[in-house]
Every structure is written in C-alpha cells, then in structure tokens.
Amino acid sequence: MSPEGFASPWHGQPRAHLGAACGPRHIQLTARPFHTSNYVHCGYTHAVKTEAESLLPLPPATFHILVALADDDRHGYAVIKDVAARTGGALKLSPGTVYRSIDRMVQQGLIREISSRPARDMDDGRRRYYRITPFGREVAMAESGRLAQMLDLARAKGLAPRKV
Asked: Which of 114, 134, 126, 130 is nearest to 78 (CA)?
C-alpha cells in the first residue's frame, strides 16, 4: 500500500517519479462540488473526485465529441459525421480516435451510454448511443471559457483577428 492508502504499482519509487508518470499528485480542495467517478488513473481504481478544471485542457477530440453530444444523443459514427460537418471537413476524426475517446469519457463521467434508441426501422441494433452528462457539460463550458480567454490574449497581441 502507498502512503495515501491505496495500492500503487509505483509504491516505493520517489515521488518525483510518480508525479512525472501521473501528473499532479494532489487535488486542490475548493468549495465547488466534486464529481465522483471510478475513472482509472495511473493504475488506480478507487473513486476519484474531480472538478471540471482538473481535466483541462481537453484533447481536441474530447472537446469536439462533447460539442457533438451537447444538443442530441448520438452514436459514434454520427459523432464523426457531426464533427466533420461542423468543421467544414477540416477535422475528420478516425473511428479509433472516437471510440477510444468515448471509452475514456464514459469512465471519466463526461458522457454515458443510454439505452433509449430510435425506432428499429431507423436504427442498427449494434450501435451504442451516448449522452453528455451534467458534469460533461460543465467540463465543456470550462474548456470553452479557457479557449475564449486564450483567444482574447491572442487578439490583445495582434495574433488573431479582432471581433467583428
């Protein structure tokens, strides 16, 4: 057991190594509510309390998937088509990227698989449909705010066009 009280594959190795392998070793406590999930992080399978900001910055694929699910439940291929349509074909997510991201996002509590489906004649029974969770929406909004702030900074330095 590690000093924190859970099994660790890196027990006995210096803390600097743990930090390098897994990122920050602490979670800053605030008055904001936490989301609890069983996200597997660096070999641990204990409940992890996370705040939206702790997942930022999001990988681009994750953000695009959250945006695709923001207004409608979709299956993986529909997510791929939505992202391509919204970006004018500039971004085409591969099935491998989408399904690996979806698996991780379900574990993080950002999205969940749903059992409701369209009518049988309009659906393929092999498809799995996903819905954004309230925590996923919170994370997407936090990432949107982060990106907006970065754009404002770039505009202030003349690196991006001014708002119209």
From this structure: 130
Residue ranges per domain, the chain?
A: 15-54, 55-156
Look up the pTM and report it. 0.69
Q: Which residues contact 92 (CB under 8 A, 6 or more apart)?
A: 80, 83, 84
- Strand-pairing partners, residue 111, are 132
Per-residue pLDDT reduced to its tens digit, 18-75: 333 444 444 443 444 445 554 444 454 555 556 899 999 999 999 999 999 999 999 9
What residues form DSSP beta bridges with 36? 49
Which class in CATH covers the domain with range 55-156? mainly alpha
Angstrom CA distances, 151 to 49, 115, 160, 161, stand at 30, 39, 7, 9
